[in-house]
Amino acid sequence: MSLNSSEILRHLYSVSRSQIRRDIADCKLQLRSVTQADFLTILVEESLSDHLPEDVASTFHRRMVRANVVNKMNTVAEALRLFCVALATNDIATHAVFAAEKVGRLAELSRMMDEIEEREGMGEDEYWLMGAGPADYQPLSKESDELYDLIFDTAYVTALRRYDLDAVAKLYEDDRTTHDELYEQGRMLIFGPVRQEWLPVQRVRRTRNGIEFWEFTAAEGSES
Question: How much is the pTM?
């Protein structure tokens, strides 16, 4: 069963601000002392195995409440605090993009780009390099990318402010480089560097009709 992003967001944003603050107060009592060793448990405590939109929204809500509490804990490294916040918020912003791409201008752009890809004989896992592709494809791709970024960024900041994470929202808006550096530092503290064997696919550079594109194939040593 596929997740209905619009319904997930509807349920999530039906939670009142007063309820959010009550839940944050309750969570503070539950997480009075969190060490860096506790972080992995906190991050993976709840999976998204549920498919009902209201259940997924409830999980997102609990994650954001927990992120608010953890973000105020000076005993935890700043990078880990931000990573916890961003990890919870990314899912919400991603579903905002999923909901938006089914309607309006994004849906129209996707349809037009699909038609060009089919016309040019592109496979399902083949993509033109940034700035490459036929002349009529490039402006559509550029506009689509800009809309995706705008929707994601707006949803990301909106979710942060709704859960009283204004300092993180301000950092994201005013100093994206520092935000992203802290995120990566926090990710590495929890999970370590990304190893090639963990990646299920690899990108292979191809050329068709003089135009370069990326083809995604199974990584060497991975199962087909």
Answer: 0.79
Distance between CA atoms of residues 172 and 182, nearest Å? 11
For residue 33 the two structure tokens come to 């002392």
Q: Are 169 and 161 in contact (CB under 8 A)?
A: yes
Report pLDDT digits (tens) over 139-182: 998 898 899 999 999 999 999 999 999 999 999 999 999 999 99
- The single residue listed with the structure tokens 């960024």 is 153
Type of residue at 136 = D
Cα–Cα distance measured from residue 42 to residue 18, given in angstroms and rounded to the nearest whole number? 24
Q: For residues 101 and 35, what is the distance between their CA atoms, to the nearest angstrom?
A: 39
Q: Is there a contact between 215 and 203 (Cβ–Cβ < 8 Å)?
A: yes
Cα–Cα distance measured from residue 106 to residue 148, given in angstroms and rounded to the nearest whole number = 8
Task: State pLDDT tens for residues 82-96.
Answer: 999 999 999 999 999
139 burial level (CB within 10 Å; 0-12, 13-18, 19+): exposed
Give the number of other CB atoms < 10 A from CB of residue 86.
22
- Rounded to the nearest 5 degrees, what angle is found at the Cα of 16, between the Cα atoms of 179 and 74? 35
Residue partners of 145: CB distance under 8 A and separation at least 6: none
- What is the b/e burial string over 116-134, where b = at least 16 CB atoms within 10 angstroms of the residue's CB? bbeebebeeebbbeeeebe
Cα 135–chain centre separation: 30
Three-class secondary structure of residue 107 per DSSP:
helix
Q: How many CB atoms lie within 10 A of CB 93?
A: 20
